[in-house]
Structures are given as structure tokens and as C-alpha cells.
Design brief:
Number of helices: 21
Largest sheet: none
Order of helices and strands: HHHHHHHHHHHHHHHHHHHHH
Number of strands: 0
Shape: elongated
Strand content: under 5%
Radius of gyration: 30 Å
Distance between the termini: 72 Å
Length: 306
């Protein structure tokens, strides 16, 4: 990342070498002297259009300024070129340089904070998406428009990639793309365990669709239980009804006990008659049952065991 304090100190050094005031530099660049002061204090830096003008004024390069005058800087070797292309509105030429391998896609990361989202989109739209690794996508996510992120994530979902990286992009993925990932999970092309990391960002309807697939045996139930905090109460109620009528094993609902509403727990307890008494289910529900009710149920269980 760009070191604003290092850059600011270098701008201050260049100004002092020319024996200029901040006001004089500001007048030459058509900015306020307060802006120059903030640059030198490392509170901000020149925008992407001003940097080339600043470099020309001091007789140096954009790379020299953003590297803080350091010769052996770890910053991108082409950051200055990228900034100059953006400043000259040559986004297509910049994209061509990335596609041709002259500039690596990850070199856009360092300059991205200086670019408008619309400008970055102009570049990324023209860059071959295979040039973007998931690590680069992850770093560019706060600066790229949602449509581009969706395209990159869905393309990545077809490849062998670390899914924890995809999960880290969840806050930036649109609901439409998340729904597409759910569809692929149901179709079997994306593993359900991968979707769990996206659960906090899924709509209730999307989670419920996954639960429905587990009910019908098309998805692993244990993995679905990890979605429990995000399952809607209507869906939980349907599962309770299925346990009550015997179409769903009581063990399946046990892991969801902390998320069941009171009426759901009461319905399960009502179903514990002499012919359908489930001690394991009772144990899972125990922390959520009143002491008096629990005592009666335990007493009933003990009497049946005699």
C-alpha cells in the first residue's frame, strides 16, 4: 500500500529544495494551500490527475513521488505508468498492457484507492478475467463495482480455488450472484460446505431452499445444520411439523433446538407421548424448557424405564 507519510515527506523535501512555499506550489497546481499542507503531513495525497502535474513541476516522475524518493522501493514498478494512463483517460490502452503481460493485474491494487469506481470498471471490463487471481479480486473488491465482482466470483466458482477467499468477498457479492451460487449448490456443482461461509449474506429464501433440498435427501443434512442461525422461523416450523408427524427424524431437529421458537418447542414436547418418547431429543431441548415442565418430562421418562 502507498505510504502517505513517506510520500508527504518527499513532497515537502522537493518543495524545500526549490525554496517554495506551500502557497506557491498550490498556485502552480491550481489547488488550495491546505491541500498541499495535507499532502506533506501525510493526511492525504494528490489525486490521480494532479500527480503527473506535480511530478512535472518538480522535474521528477510519478513513480519517484509515490515511492517517496526511495530507489529500491517495494511498490509496483508500473504504478506511475498506470496513474499516467488513467490521468490521460487511456483506460483501454492500460487494459491492453495488462492483457499483454506488460503490467500485472495485481499492480492495479496499489493504485485502486486513487481511482474512481467508474474508471476502474473501464479498465477491468477490458481486461481478460483470467488475469485476475482470487487474491487480486479480494484486494480490489472494495474498489470494483458489484457487477464486476459477481462476474469474477462466478467464474472463479468454476475453478479450483480457495473458497475461504470467495467467502471473504461475500460482503461485496450481489444477492443475484449469491442466488446463483445456491443454485449451483443444489445442482451439485458447488459443495454445500462452501456456501456455509456465505450464510450471513444469504437471503432467508435462499437458505430455506437449501434446507428443502436436505429434507428431500439431495443435500447433506449435517452441513445444512450449520446454517441453523440463518433459517427462517417458518421453515423451522415446517421441520417441527415433520418431526411431529414422523416424516422427519427427531435427531435432525435436535441441532436446531437453540433457534426454535417457544411454540415449536412446545409442539415437539406435545409429540412425546408414550409411544414416541425420545430421550435424545429431550436432552437437546432441555436448556430451553422451564424447570417445572422439564421435571415432569424427566419423571415420565424415568417411570417408563422402570
Amino acid at each position: 500500500m502507498l505510504d502517505l507519510r513517506l510520500i508527504g515527506a518527499y513532497i515537502s523535501k522537493l518543495r524545500k529544495e526549490k525554496d517554495l512555499t506551500q502557497m506557491e506550489v498550490a498556485d502552480q497546481l491550481n489547488v488550495s494551500h491546505q491541500a498541499v499542507s495535507k499532502w506533506e503531513r501525510g493526511e492525504s495525497m494528490p489525486d490521480i490527475g494532479t500527480l503527473p502535474q506535480l511530478a512535472k513541476f518538480f522535474g521528477t516522475t510519478v513513480d519517484d513521488i509515490i515511492n517517496g524518493g526511495l530507489i529500491n522501493s517495494e511498490h509496483s514498478q508500473h504504478a506511475g505508468t498506470i496513474i499516467e494512463k488513467i490521468a490521460d483517460n487511456e483506460t483501454e490502452q492500460l487494459a491492453d498492457m495488462v492483457n499483454d503481460g506488460m503490467i500485472e493485474a495485481e499492480e492495479l491494487v496499489e493504485v485502486a484507492p486513487l481511482m474512481k469506481a467508474s474508471t476502474l470498471k473501464q479498465v477491468t471490463d477490458k481486461v481478460d478475467k483470467t488475469r485476475f487471481s482470487m487474491d487480486v479480486i479480494q484486494q480490489l473488491a472494495p474498489f470494483i463495482d458489484p457487477e464486476t465482482i459477481d462476474s469474477l466470483v462466478l467464474q472463479a466458482a468454476d475453478q479450483q480455488i480457495p473458497w475461504e477467499t470467495v467467502s471473504s468477498l461475500a460482503p461485496f457479492i450481489s444477492r443475484g450472484a449469491l442466488s446463483e451460487l445456491v443454485d449451483r449448490t443444489i445442482a451439485g456443482t458447488v459443495d454445500l460446505s462452501h456456501i456455509v461461509g456465505l450464510a450471513p449474506f444469504l437471503h432467508n429464501e435462499q437458505v430455506d431452499r437449501l434446507v428443502l433440498q436436505a429434507e428431500t435427501g439431495n443435500l447433506n443434512w449435517d452441513a445444512v445444520q450449520s446454517l441453523a442461525p440463518f433459517i427462517g422461523q417458518d421453515t423451522l416450523g415446517r421441520l417441527v411439523d415433520q418431526v411431529a408427524d414422523g416424516s422427519l427424524g427427531a435427531g435432525r431437529i435436535a441441532g436446531l433446538a437453540p433457534f426454535l421458537a417457544r411454540q415449536h418447542i412446545e409442539k415437539l414436547l406435545e409429540g412425546m407421548n408414550e409411544d414416541n418418547y425420545n430421550p435424545d431429543l429431550l436432552a437437546s431441548l432441555a436448556p430451553f424448557i422451564g424447570k417445572e415442565t422439564l421435571s415432569k418430562l424427566v419423571a415420565g421418562l424415568v417411570s417408563r424405564m422402570k
